[in-house]
């Protein structure tokens, strides 16, 4: 079964508008972490934002915010005021368990975001 | 600046000819990971090191090996590359935190491997 599901293969947004990228996850662990990474066409993976399973408030980092709904097991990324440089592949990822997981990440299939001028 | 470095950025090899990809880090992180990412797919974890302890993923082919001679360096060896091994190879690091957690993974720029 898929542990991380990103149902939007591609998304389009107008420059300066906000966009939401969907992510749902499946785990039986109580302690886990959720991450979003950006991967431009050059290939490097850029860390954007992190949400811990015990964090009561939604994470925010500049124009990025994470809409964490624990009961629904969703961790959607919201990008406000989109910029042309935001065009990239976006991956949602989950880290399960404690020390025995060694911080391993499971990635979703990704969403390609295209920002139009 | 502290970072994760991968060399080379682009590697071309011939079918069956051994190849080694290199990763180094200045972050002093104790965990290093190797991922394989094929075109338009999610990164797939091949193996990771916690300090000198090697951990192989169950479905990683025997064709892939790794070495970590010290904290800073980690190598990915592909003994007999096949056409299906053409991919982006990403190295990442993370650090074990207090209370048994880990911080986010920091990725290198990747090595794009072409097999002719």
Structure commentary:
The complex is a heterodimer of chains A (117) and B (116). In chain A, 0% of the residues lie in helices and 50% in strands. Chain A has 117 residues and is mainly β. In chain A, the strands form 3 sheets. In chain A, strands 2, 5, 6, 10, 11 and 12 form a 6-stranded mixed β-sheet that branches. The model of chain A has no long low-confidence stretch (mean pLDDT 92). Chains A and B meet through strand 5 and strand 6 of A and strand 5, strand 9 and strand 10 of B.
Question: What is the element layout, followed by pairings?
Answer:
The complex is a heterodimer of chains A (117) and B (116).
Chain A: E1 4-5, E2 10-14, E3 19-21, E4 24-25, E5 32-39, E6 46-52, E7 60-61, E8 64-69, E9 74-79, E10 88-96, E11 105-107, E12 111-116
Parallel strand pairs in A: 2-12
Antiparallel strand pairs in A: 1-4, 3-9, 5-6, 5-10, 7-8, 8-9, 10-11, 10-12
Chain B: E1 4-7, E2 10-13, E3 19-25, E4 31-37, E5 44-50, E6 53-56, E7 64-67, E8 73-78, E9 87-94, E10 106-107, E11 111-115
Parallel strand pairs in B: 2-11
Antiparallel strand pairs in B: 1-3, 3-8, 4-5, 4-9, 5-6, 7-8, 9-10, 9-11
Based on the model shown, name its key terms.
heterodimer; A: 117 residues; mainly beta; six-stranded mixed β-sheet; four-stranded antiparallel β-sheet; 12 strands; 50% strand; globular; B: 116 residues; seven-stranded mixed β-sheet
Order of helices and strands of chain B: EEEEEEEEEEE
Largest beta sheet of chain B, briefly? Answer: 7 strands, mixed
Fraction of residues in H or I helices of chain B: under 10%
Tell me which protein chains meet in the greatest interface and how many residues each side has: A-B, 23 and 27 residues
Give me the secondary-structure category of chain A.
Answer: mainly beta
Work out the number of β strands of chain B. 11
N- to C-terminal distance of chain A: 38 Å
Q: What is the H/E order of chain A? A: EEEEEEEEEEEE
Uncertain segments of chain B: none
Proportion of helical residues of chain A: under 10%
Q: Using the CA coordinates, give the radius of gyration of chain A.
A: 14 Å
Determine Rg of chain B (CA atoms, Å): 14 Å
Instruction: Indicate the multimeric state.
Output: heterodimer
């Amino acid at each position: 079964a898929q542990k991380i599901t990103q149902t939007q293969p591609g998304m389009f947004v107008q420059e300066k508008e906000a966009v939401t990228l969907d992510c749902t996850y499946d785990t039986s662990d109580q302690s886990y972490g959720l991450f979003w990474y950006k991967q431009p066409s050059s290939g490097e993976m850029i860390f954007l934002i992190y949400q811990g399973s015990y964090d009561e408030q939604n994470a925010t980092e500049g124009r990025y915010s994470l809409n964490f709904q624990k009961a629904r097991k969703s961790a959607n990324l919201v990008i406000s005021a989109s910029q042309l440089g935001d065009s990239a592949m976006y991956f949602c990822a989950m880290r399960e368990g404690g020390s025995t997981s060694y911080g391993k990440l499971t990635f979703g299939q990704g969403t390609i975001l295209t920002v139009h001028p | 600046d502290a970072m994760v470095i991968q060399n080379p950025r682009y590697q071309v090899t011939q079918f069956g000819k051994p190849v080694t990809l290199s990763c180094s880090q200045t972050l002093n992180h104790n965990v290093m990971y190797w991922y394989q990412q094929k075109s338009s797919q999610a990164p797939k974890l091949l193996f990771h090191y916690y300090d000198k302890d090697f951990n192989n993923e169950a479905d990683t082919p025997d064709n892939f090996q790794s070495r970590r001679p010290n904290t800073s360096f980690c190598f990915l060896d592909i003994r007999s590359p096949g056409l299906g091994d053409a991919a982006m190879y990403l190295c990442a690091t993370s650090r074990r935190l207090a209370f048994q957690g880990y911080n986010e993974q920091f990725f290198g720029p990747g090595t794009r491997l072409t097999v002719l």
